[in-house]
Amino acid sequence: MTMSELERFASWVEDLIRQRGYDIDSPRGGGKSRLADDAGVHRAAITRLLQGQSMPDLETTRRLAHVLRVPVRDMLIRSGRLSEEDLPLPDLGGGAPGAAAPHRRLTLEEAAAGLGVPPDQWDMFIRVAAQFLPPADADSARSQAEYGSAAAVKGAGKG
């Protein structure tokens, strides 16, 4: 990674941090510390990133993505670690051949099925995978998992 790539990524993250209400500009704002606490990472990792000194490790990237409410995929692509080709979005079809497919997120149930996760392990898969989603999407996924558990229990009694 070149210095300019790191600086571009740091600038993008800095903008996100400000948009999410963290005061990182004033010396006593405490925004870096609050962000570090919210993400469960060391304040030094935040400082090094914002100063363009180093890229956060994968776990720190994942935690920052969660707190900043952006997909981990976007963080990894913006960081230059992976490309869009490395992390393609699924082709969900539904459009004319050659036309851009409408953007629809894959549900965690669809992901579980597509990955071959056994149906009796879907609840666990959804709970774990939901940790990697932005908070609003994770809440929705957890609700789906809870509904799925209730439906499975209800269905088990019909035999």
Plain-language structure description:
This protein is mostly helical. It folds into two domains: 3-79, lambda repressor-like DNA-binding domains (434 Repressor (Amino-terminal Domain), Orthogonal Bundle); 108-156. Helices cover 58% and strands 0% of the residues. The longest helix is centred in the C-terminal third of the chain and has 22 residues, at 135-156. The protein is globular, with a radius of gyration of 19 Å. The N and C termini lie far apart (58 Å).
Summarize the structure.
With 159 residues, the protein is mainly alpha-helical. The chain is 58% helix and 0% strand. This is Transcriptional regulator.
Outline the fold blueprint.
Layout: H1 3-19, H2 31-39, H3 43-50, H4 58-68, H5 72-79, H6 108-115, H7 122-130, H8 135-156
- Categorize the overall geometry: globular
Highest-level CATH class of the largest domain: Mainly Alpha
**Biggest sheet layout:** none
- The residue-averaged pLDDT reads 78
**H and E order:** HHHHHHHH
Structural class: mainly alpha
Radius of gyration: 19 Å
Q: For the record, what is the CATH homologous superfamily label of the largest domain?
A: lambda repressor-like DNA-binding domains
Runs in which pLDDT lies below 50 for 5 or more consecutive residues are 147-159
> How many DSSP helices?
8
Based on DSSP secondary structure assignment, what is the total number of beta strands?
Answer: 0
Say what the CATH topology of the largest domain is: 434 Repressor (Amino-terminal Domain)
- Judging by the overall fold, what is the CATH architecture of the largest domain? Orthogonal Bundle
Helix content: 55-70%
